[in-house]
Design brief:
Blueprint: E1 3-8, H1 12-27, E2 31-32, E3 39-44, H2 49-65, E4 70-75, H3 76-80, E5 90-91, H4 97-109, E6 133-140, H5 151-155, E7 159-160, H6 163-175, E8 180-185, E9 200-201, E10 233-234, H7 244-251, E11 259-262, H8 272-280, E12 287-289, H9 297-303, H10 309-322, E13 327-334, H11 341-354, E14 358-363, H12 381-404, E15 410-419, E16 422-427, E17 432-436, E18 450-454
Length: 455
Protein backbone atom coordinates (compact mmCIF):
# COMPACT_ATOMS: atom_id res chain seq x y z
CA UNK A 1 0.00 0.00 0.00
CA UNK A 2 1.58 3.28 -1.11
CA UNK A 3 -1.20 5.82 -1.59
CA UNK A 4 -4.05 7.18 0.52
CA UNK A 5 -6.93 9.65 0.50
CA UNK A 6 -8.73 11.18 3.47
CA UNK A 7 -12.36 12.28 3.16
CA UNK A 8 -13.42 14.66 5.93
CA UNK A 9 -16.88 15.64 7.16
CA UNK A 10 -17.93 17.96 9.95
CA UNK A 11 -16.22 20.63 11.99
CA UNK A 12 -12.85 22.40 11.86
CA UNK A 13 -11.57 20.07 14.57
CA UNK A 14 -12.21 17.10 12.28
CA UNK A 15 -10.42 18.94 9.48
CA UNK A 16 -7.44 19.54 11.74
CA UNK A 17 -7.38 15.89 12.80
CA UNK A 18 -7.44 14.80 9.14
CA UNK A 19 -4.61 17.16 8.29
CA UNK A 20 -2.54 15.90 11.18
CA UNK A 21 -3.15 12.28 10.18
CA UNK A 22 -2.24 13.10 6.57
CA UNK A 23 1.05 14.59 7.68
CA UNK A 24 1.79 11.46 9.71
CA UNK A 25 1.04 9.18 6.78
CA UNK A 26 3.33 11.18 4.52
CA UNK A 27 6.07 11.08 7.14
CA UNK A 28 5.79 7.29 7.04
CA UNK A 29 6.33 7.22 3.29
CA UNK A 30 2.79 7.11 1.92
CA UNK A 31 1.73 9.43 -0.90
CA UNK A 32 -1.52 11.33 -1.12
CA UNK A 33 -3.33 9.93 -4.15
CA UNK A 34 -4.27 12.15 -7.06
CA UNK A 35 -6.75 9.61 -8.37
CA UNK A 36 -7.26 6.08 -7.07
CA UNK A 37 -5.86 5.32 -3.62
CA UNK A 38 -4.87 2.08 -1.93
CA UNK A 39 -6.37 3.25 1.36
CA UNK A 40 -9.40 5.56 1.65
CA UNK A 41 -10.01 6.99 5.12
CA UNK A 42 -13.36 8.59 5.97
CA UNK A 43 -13.19 10.95 8.95
CA UNK A 44 -16.87 10.86 9.87
CA UNK A 45 -19.29 13.19 11.61
CA UNK A 46 -22.23 12.05 13.76
CA UNK A 47 -23.41 15.33 15.28
CA UNK A 48 -26.85 15.10 13.60
CA UNK A 49 -28.91 12.57 11.66
CA UNK A 50 -28.13 14.56 8.51
CA UNK A 51 -24.39 14.35 9.23
CA UNK A 52 -24.64 10.58 9.65
CA UNK A 53 -26.44 10.26 6.30
CA UNK A 54 -23.65 12.31 4.69
CA UNK A 55 -21.04 10.03 6.25
CA UNK A 56 -22.76 7.02 4.66
CA UNK A 57 -22.81 8.76 1.28
CA UNK A 58 -19.14 9.63 1.61
CA UNK A 59 -18.25 5.97 2.14
CA UNK A 60 -20.09 4.99 -1.04
CA UNK A 61 -18.45 7.84 -2.94
CA UNK A 62 -14.97 6.85 -1.71
CA UNK A 63 -15.62 3.24 -2.73
CA UNK A 64 -16.65 4.37 -6.21
CA UNK A 65 -13.66 6.70 -6.66
CA UNK A 66 -11.18 4.11 -5.33
CA UNK A 67 -12.55 0.70 -6.43
CA UNK A 68 -9.52 -1.27 -5.27
CA UNK A 69 -9.02 0.54 -1.98
CA UNK A 70 -9.42 -0.64 1.57
CA UNK A 71 -11.97 1.62 3.30
CA UNK A 72 -11.25 2.75 6.86
CA UNK A 73 -13.76 4.65 9.01
CA UNK A 74 -12.57 7.00 11.76
CA UNK A 75 -14.07 9.97 13.62
CA UNK A 76 -17.19 10.67 15.65
CA UNK A 77 -19.38 7.99 14.04
CA UNK A 78 -17.05 5.31 15.38
CA UNK A 79 -17.27 6.66 18.92
CA UNK A 80 -20.94 7.65 18.93
CA UNK A 81 -22.84 5.08 16.90
CA UNK A 82 -23.40 1.36 17.25
CA UNK A 83 -24.61 1.06 13.65
CA UNK A 84 -22.39 -0.91 11.28
CA UNK A 85 -21.85 0.60 7.86
CA UNK A 86 -21.74 -1.33 4.61
CA UNK A 87 -18.60 -1.02 2.53
CA UNK A 88 -16.22 -0.40 5.44
CA UNK A 89 -13.22 -2.73 5.80
CA UNK A 90 -11.74 -1.24 8.96
CA UNK A 91 -13.38 0.67 11.81
CA UNK A 92 -10.72 2.55 13.74
CA UNK A 93 -11.50 4.28 17.01
CA UNK A 94 -9.83 6.96 19.10
CA UNK A 95 -6.26 6.32 20.22
CA UNK A 96 -5.99 3.19 18.08
CA UNK A 97 -5.92 5.06 14.75
CA UNK A 98 -2.15 5.07 14.31
CA UNK A 99 -1.65 1.53 15.61
CA UNK A 100 -4.33 0.06 13.37
CA UNK A 101 -3.24 1.92 10.24
CA UNK A 102 0.24 0.55 10.85
CA UNK A 103 -1.27 -2.94 10.95
CA UNK A 104 -3.16 -2.31 7.71
CA UNK A 105 -0.03 -0.97 6.03
CA UNK A 106 2.16 -3.85 7.17
CA UNK A 107 -0.42 -6.45 6.18
CA UNK A 108 -1.10 -4.98 2.77
CA UNK A 109 2.36 -4.04 1.50
CA UNK A 110 5.06 -4.89 3.96
CA UNK A 111 5.87 -1.23 4.61
CA UNK A 112 7.74 -1.05 7.91
CA UNK A 113 7.96 2.69 8.49
CA UNK A 114 6.18 3.22 11.77
CA UNK A 115 3.86 6.21 11.85
CA UNK A 116 4.54 8.57 14.70
CA UNK A 117 1.86 9.10 17.30
CA UNK A 118 0.14 12.42 16.44
CA UNK A 119 -0.28 13.11 20.16
CA UNK A 120 3.48 13.10 20.64
CA UNK A 121 4.36 16.57 21.94
CA UNK A 122 7.65 16.55 20.02
CA UNK A 123 5.85 16.01 16.72
CA UNK A 124 5.73 19.42 15.04
CA UNK A 125 4.64 18.61 11.52
CA UNK A 126 2.78 21.49 9.92
CA UNK A 127 -0.33 20.39 8.07
CA UNK A 128 -0.03 20.80 4.30
CA UNK A 129 -2.66 23.24 3.12
CA UNK A 130 -3.08 25.86 0.45
CA UNK A 131 -5.56 27.84 2.49
CA UNK A 132 -4.90 31.35 3.72
CA UNK A 133 -5.67 30.59 7.36
CA UNK A 134 -4.11 28.03 9.67
CA UNK A 135 -6.59 26.17 11.86
CA UNK A 136 -5.04 24.70 14.99
CA UNK A 137 -6.86 22.45 17.44
CA UNK A 138 -5.97 23.48 20.97
CA UNK A 139 -8.76 21.70 22.85
CA UNK A 140 -10.98 18.63 22.53
CA UNK A 141 -13.93 17.18 24.40
CA UNK A 142 -17.10 18.60 25.93
CA UNK A 143 -19.03 18.10 29.17
CA UNK A 144 -21.98 20.41 28.52
CA UNK A 145 -24.47 17.70 27.48
CA UNK A 146 -26.89 19.79 25.42
CA UNK A 147 -29.93 17.60 24.83
CA UNK A 148 -29.53 17.63 21.02
CA UNK A 149 -25.79 16.87 20.97
CA UNK A 150 -23.93 13.55 20.89
CA UNK A 151 -20.46 15.12 20.99
CA UNK A 152 -19.77 14.68 24.75
CA UNK A 153 -20.14 10.94 24.18
CA UNK A 154 -18.21 10.93 20.91
CA UNK A 155 -15.36 13.18 22.03
CA UNK A 156 -15.26 12.52 25.77
CA UNK A 157 -14.24 14.91 28.54
CA UNK A 158 -12.25 18.14 28.35
CA UNK A 159 -8.69 17.82 27.07
CA UNK A 160 -6.38 20.77 26.37
CA UNK A 161 -2.97 20.92 24.74
CA UNK A 162 -0.27 22.63 26.76
CA UNK A 163 0.54 26.28 26.00
CA UNK A 164 4.14 25.49 24.99
CA UNK A 165 2.96 22.90 22.47
CA UNK A 166 0.37 25.27 20.96
CA UNK A 167 2.82 28.17 20.79
CA UNK A 168 5.40 25.96 19.07
CA UNK A 169 2.96 24.94 16.34
CA UNK A 170 1.74 28.51 15.83
CA UNK A 171 5.35 29.67 15.46
CA UNK A 172 5.85 27.12 12.70
CA UNK A 173 2.63 28.16 10.96
CA UNK A 174 3.77 31.80 11.01
CA UNK A 175 7.16 30.81 9.55
CA UNK A 176 5.32 28.84 6.84
CA UNK A 177 3.59 32.06 5.76
CA UNK A 178 0.15 31.89 7.36
CA UNK A 179 -1.12 35.37 8.18
CA UNK A 180 -4.16 34.32 10.21
CA UNK A 181 -4.20 31.66 12.93
CA UNK A 182 -7.61 30.26 13.95
CA UNK A 183 -7.80 28.68 17.41
CA UNK A 184 -10.25 25.76 17.28
CA UNK A 185 -11.72 23.32 19.75
CA UNK A 186 -14.88 21.39 20.59
CA UNK A 187 -15.43 23.63 23.65
CA UNK A 188 -12.83 26.32 23.00
CA UNK A 189 -13.81 28.64 25.84
CA UNK A 190 -12.90 25.95 28.37
CA UNK A 191 -9.34 25.63 27.13
CA UNK A 192 -7.20 24.71 30.15
CA UNK A 193 -10.22 24.55 32.44
CA UNK A 194 -9.86 20.85 33.19
CA UNK A 195 -7.09 22.11 35.46
CA UNK A 196 -9.64 23.95 37.60
CA UNK A 197 -12.83 23.19 39.50
CA UNK A 198 -15.49 23.74 36.87
CA UNK A 199 -18.89 22.63 37.96
CA UNK A 200 -20.77 19.66 39.30
CA UNK A 201 -22.53 17.18 37.04
CA UNK A 202 -26.02 16.54 38.39
CA UNK A 203 -27.76 13.20 37.84
CA UNK A 204 -30.53 13.46 35.25
CA UNK A 205 -33.09 12.42 37.83
CA UNK A 206 -32.63 15.72 39.68
CA UNK A 207 -34.19 18.99 38.49
CA UNK A 208 -31.81 21.66 37.14
CA UNK A 209 -30.57 24.09 39.77
CA UNK A 210 -29.42 27.69 39.52
CA UNK A 211 -25.93 29.13 39.69
CA UNK A 212 -24.88 32.65 40.47
CA UNK A 213 -25.84 35.03 37.66
CA UNK A 214 -28.81 32.93 36.57
CA UNK A 215 -26.69 30.31 34.76
CA UNK A 216 -27.92 26.76 34.84
CA UNK A 217 -25.64 23.99 36.03
CA UNK A 218 -24.92 21.47 33.29
CA UNK A 219 -27.04 18.35 33.57
CA UNK A 220 -26.55 15.35 31.27
CA UNK A 221 -29.60 13.58 29.91
CA UNK A 222 -30.17 9.88 29.51
CA UNK A 223 -29.34 9.04 25.90
CA UNK A 224 -30.81 5.77 24.77
CA UNK A 225 -28.47 2.80 24.94
CA UNK A 226 -25.58 4.88 26.21
CA UNK A 227 -27.16 4.92 29.66
CA UNK A 228 -24.50 7.29 30.95
CA UNK A 229 -25.63 9.22 33.98
CA UNK A 230 -22.58 10.34 35.97
CA UNK A 231 -22.72 10.58 39.71
CA UNK A 232 -22.05 13.97 41.29
CA UNK A 233 -18.50 14.71 40.13
CA UNK A 234 -16.08 17.60 40.44
CA UNK A 235 -13.50 18.11 37.71
CA UNK A 236 -9.92 18.71 38.79
CA UNK A 237 -6.53 18.52 37.18
CA UNK A 238 -3.94 20.46 39.09
CA UNK A 239 -1.18 19.97 36.53
CA UNK A 240 -1.56 23.35 34.81
CA UNK A 241 -2.95 26.81 35.41
CA UNK A 242 -3.80 27.83 31.85
CA UNK A 243 -6.83 29.33 30.18
CA UNK A 244 -7.77 30.90 26.85
CA UNK A 245 -6.86 34.44 27.92
CA UNK A 246 -3.45 33.41 29.24
CA UNK A 247 -2.70 31.58 25.99
CA UNK A 248 -3.78 34.57 23.88
CA UNK A 249 -1.54 36.92 25.88
CA UNK A 250 1.46 34.78 24.95
CA UNK A 251 0.46 34.27 21.32
CA UNK A 252 0.02 37.98 20.51
CA UNK A 253 3.65 38.54 21.52
CA UNK A 254 4.97 36.19 18.83
CA UNK A 255 7.22 37.82 16.27
CA UNK A 256 5.72 38.23 12.77
CA UNK A 257 2.30 36.93 13.84
CA UNK A 258 -0.38 38.53 11.68
CA UNK A 259 -3.55 37.93 13.66
CA UNK A 260 -5.53 35.38 15.68
CA UNK A 261 -9.19 34.42 15.38
CA UNK A 262 -11.32 32.38 17.79
CA UNK A 263 -13.44 29.79 15.98
CA UNK A 264 -16.40 29.58 18.39
CA UNK A 265 -16.98 30.24 22.08
CA UNK A 266 -19.96 30.02 24.42
CA UNK A 267 -21.28 33.37 25.61
CA UNK A 268 -20.92 32.23 29.24
CA UNK A 269 -17.15 32.00 28.67
CA UNK A 270 -16.63 35.52 27.32
CA UNK A 271 -14.89 36.96 30.37
CA UNK A 272 -14.14 40.59 31.15
CA UNK A 273 -10.46 39.70 30.74
CA UNK A 274 -11.07 38.35 27.22
CA UNK A 275 -13.04 41.44 26.17
CA UNK A 276 -10.29 43.77 27.39
CA UNK A 277 -7.64 41.65 25.71
CA UNK A 278 -9.41 41.92 22.34
CA UNK A 279 -9.81 45.68 22.86
CA UNK A 280 -6.15 46.28 23.69
CA UNK A 281 -4.60 43.95 21.15
CA UNK A 282 -4.34 44.72 17.47
CA UNK A 283 -3.74 41.05 16.71
CA UNK A 284 -7.01 39.42 17.87
CA UNK A 285 -9.81 39.57 15.29
CA UNK A 286 -12.80 41.60 16.37
CA UNK A 287 -15.25 38.82 15.74
CA UNK A 288 -16.81 36.37 18.17
CA UNK A 289 -18.91 33.39 17.14
CA UNK A 290 -21.40 32.97 20.00
CA UNK A 291 -23.94 30.14 19.46
CA UNK A 292 -27.46 31.30 20.31
CA UNK A 293 -29.42 28.19 19.16
CA UNK A 294 -32.78 29.69 20.15
CA UNK A 295 -34.31 33.00 21.19
CA UNK A 296 -36.87 31.33 23.44
CA UNK A 297 -36.17 30.61 27.12
CA UNK A 298 -38.53 27.64 26.94
CA UNK A 299 -36.55 26.05 24.11
CA UNK A 300 -33.18 26.89 25.68
CA UNK A 301 -34.25 25.02 28.80
CA UNK A 302 -35.28 21.99 26.72
CA UNK A 303 -31.92 22.19 24.94
CA UNK A 304 -30.13 22.29 28.31
CA UNK A 305 -28.24 25.42 27.29
CA UNK A 306 -26.39 27.17 30.18
CA UNK A 307 -27.93 30.68 29.81
CA UNK A 308 -31.23 32.47 29.30
CA UNK A 309 -32.14 35.28 26.91
CA UNK A 310 -31.61 38.00 29.48
CA UNK A 311 -28.06 36.80 30.15
CA UNK A 312 -27.27 36.60 26.43
CA UNK A 313 -28.62 40.09 25.75
CA UNK A 314 -26.77 41.70 28.66
CA UNK A 315 -23.47 40.07 27.69
CA UNK A 316 -23.81 41.37 24.12
CA UNK A 317 -24.45 44.88 25.52
CA UNK A 318 -21.31 44.58 27.63
CA UNK A 319 -19.22 43.50 24.63
CA UNK A 320 -20.51 46.34 22.45
CA UNK A 321 -19.94 48.96 25.13
CA UNK A 322 -16.25 48.11 24.92
CA UNK A 323 -16.10 47.10 21.23
CA UNK A 324 -18.95 48.82 19.33
CA UNK A 325 -18.01 47.38 15.92
CA UNK A 326 -17.47 43.81 17.13
CA UNK A 327 -18.80 41.23 14.66
CA UNK A 328 -21.11 38.81 16.47
CA UNK A 329 -21.88 35.69 14.44
CA UNK A 330 -24.05 32.84 15.68
CA UNK A 331 -25.70 29.43 15.19
CA UNK A 332 -29.46 28.92 15.32
CA UNK A 333 -31.40 25.65 15.38
CA UNK A 334 -34.96 25.85 14.03
CA UNK A 335 -37.67 23.27 14.55
CA UNK A 336 -36.40 21.94 17.87
CA UNK A 337 -39.02 19.68 19.55
CA UNK A 338 -41.66 21.83 21.20
CA UNK A 339 -40.80 24.97 19.19
CA UNK A 340 -44.11 26.70 18.51
CA UNK A 341 -44.64 29.50 16.02
CA UNK A 342 -44.51 31.89 18.99
CA UNK A 343 -41.11 30.49 20.01
CA UNK A 344 -39.79 30.83 16.47
CA UNK A 345 -41.03 34.42 16.20
CA UNK A 346 -39.32 35.20 19.52
CA UNK A 347 -36.08 33.86 18.04
CA UNK A 348 -36.52 35.90 14.87
CA UNK A 349 -37.27 39.05 16.90
CA UNK A 350 -34.24 38.53 19.13
CA UNK A 351 -31.96 38.08 16.12
CA UNK A 352 -33.18 41.40 14.70
CA UNK A 353 -32.66 43.13 18.05
CA UNK A 354 -29.11 41.85 18.48
CA UNK A 355 -28.23 42.55 14.83
CA UNK A 356 -25.90 39.62 14.38
CA UNK A 357 -23.43 40.06 11.54
CA UNK A 358 -23.97 36.51 10.26
CA UNK A 359 -26.22 33.51 11.01
CA UNK A 360 -25.59 29.81 10.51
CA UNK A 361 -29.06 28.24 10.38
CA UNK A 362 -29.64 24.54 11.04
CA UNK A 363 -33.00 22.74 10.79
CA UNK A 364 -33.18 20.37 13.78
CA UNK A 365 -31.93 16.92 12.73
CA UNK A 366 -32.32 14.37 15.50
CA UNK A 367 -29.29 12.26 16.33
CA UNK A 368 -31.09 9.11 17.45
CA UNK A 369 -28.96 8.64 20.59
CA UNK A 370 -29.82 12.04 22.07
CA UNK A 371 -32.71 12.78 24.40
CA UNK A 372 -33.98 15.45 21.98
CA UNK A 373 -34.77 12.73 19.44
CA UNK A 374 -37.23 11.21 21.91
CA UNK A 375 -38.90 14.43 23.04
CA UNK A 376 -42.54 15.08 22.34
CA UNK A 377 -43.58 17.89 20.03
CA UNK A 378 -41.40 16.94 17.06
CA UNK A 379 -41.76 19.61 14.35
CA UNK A 380 -42.74 18.68 10.78
CA UNK A 381 -40.03 18.91 8.14
CA UNK A 382 -41.92 21.41 5.99
CA UNK A 383 -42.24 23.76 8.99
CA UNK A 384 -38.52 23.43 9.73
CA UNK A 385 -37.73 24.27 6.10
CA UNK A 386 -39.98 27.34 6.11
CA UNK A 387 -38.45 28.65 9.31
CA UNK A 388 -34.91 27.97 8.09
CA UNK A 389 -35.64 29.76 4.80
CA UNK A 390 -36.97 32.81 6.66
CA UNK A 391 -33.86 33.09 8.84
CA UNK A 392 -31.51 32.54 5.90
CA UNK A 393 -33.23 35.38 4.06
CA UNK A 394 -32.85 37.54 7.18
CA UNK A 395 -29.18 36.55 7.31
CA UNK A 396 -28.53 38.07 3.88
CA UNK A 397 -29.90 41.42 5.09
CA UNK A 398 -27.93 41.29 8.36
CA UNK A 399 -24.69 40.53 6.49
CA UNK A 400 -25.24 43.40 4.02
CA UNK A 401 -26.19 45.88 6.76
CA UNK A 402 -23.13 45.01 8.82
CA UNK A 403 -20.72 45.21 5.88
CA UNK A 404 -22.13 48.59 4.82
CA UNK A 405 -21.03 50.06 8.18
CA UNK A 406 -17.42 49.83 7.01
CA UNK A 407 -17.73 51.60 3.66
CA UNK A 408 -14.85 54.01 3.12
CA UNK A 409 -12.74 52.51 5.92
CA UNK A 410 -9.30 50.94 5.61
CA UNK A 411 -9.34 47.35 6.85
CA UNK A 412 -6.85 44.50 6.83
CA UNK A 413 -7.69 41.28 5.03
CA UNK A 414 -6.15 37.81 4.98
CA UNK A 415 -5.71 37.11 1.25
CA UNK A 416 -7.58 33.93 0.27
CA UNK A 417 -7.46 34.06 -3.50
CA UNK A 418 -5.81 36.00 -6.32
CA UNK A 419 -7.63 35.55 -9.59
CA UNK A 420 -7.74 37.61 -12.79
CA UNK A 421 -6.18 40.66 -11.12
CA UNK A 422 -8.70 40.44 -8.28
CA UNK A 423 -7.53 40.00 -4.69
CA UNK A 424 -10.11 38.35 -2.43
CA UNK A 425 -9.94 37.87 1.30
CA UNK A 426 -11.59 38.06 4.70
CA UNK A 427 -11.48 41.03 7.06
CA UNK A 428 -10.87 40.73 10.78
CA UNK A 429 -14.63 41.37 11.11
CA UNK A 430 -15.32 38.14 9.19
CA UNK A 431 -16.82 39.40 5.96
CA UNK A 432 -15.43 38.85 2.47
CA UNK A 433 -14.14 41.64 0.26
CA UNK A 434 -12.32 41.95 -3.04
CA UNK A 435 -10.13 44.61 -4.62
CA UNK A 436 -8.50 45.29 -7.97
CA UNK A 437 -4.86 44.28 -7.68
CA UNK A 438 -3.83 47.32 -9.73
CA UNK A 439 -5.25 49.62 -7.05
CA UNK A 440 -2.96 48.19 -4.37
CA UNK A 441 0.46 49.64 -3.63
CA UNK A 442 2.05 46.25 -3.08
CA UNK A 443 1.92 44.17 -6.27
CA UNK A 444 3.79 41.16 -4.84
CA UNK A 445 0.81 39.77 -2.95
CA UNK A 446 0.52 36.11 -1.97
CA UNK A 447 -2.23 33.93 -0.48
CA UNK A 448 -2.10 34.03 3.32
CA UNK A 449 -0.67 37.55 3.48
CA UNK A 450 -2.33 40.27 5.57
CA UNK A 451 -2.82 43.44 3.50
CA UNK A 452 -4.68 46.71 3.94
CA UNK A 453 -7.46 47.76 1.53
CA UNK A 454 -10.20 50.37 1.45
CA UNK A 455 -13.73 48.98 1.71
Amino acid sequence: MKTYKIYTLGCKVNQYDSGKLSAQLQAAGLVMAGKQADLAIINSCAVTKTAMIKSGRMIRSAKKENPGAKIALIGCWVRASETKLAGVDFVIGGKEIIKQINRIMNYESGIRNKIQNPNNKNNKIIINSDKSRYFIKIQDGCEQFCSYCIIPYARGGLKSRGEAEVIGEVEQAVKAGYGEIVLSGIHLGLYGKESQLLYSVIPASEPPRKMRGGLRITRPYRTGTFGREPAMTNYYNGARDENLASLLKKLVKLKNLGRIRLSSIEITEVSDELIELIKNSGKICRQLHLPLQSGSDKILKLMNRPYDMNYFKNKIKQIRRVLPDMAITTDVIVGFPGESEKDFRATEKFIRQIKFSRLHVFPFSAQEKTSAAKMSGQVKEKIKKRRADLLRKLNLKLMADYKNKFKGRDLKIAVEQIKQNKVMGKTEYYFDVSADKKSLKNKNIRVGQIIKIKI
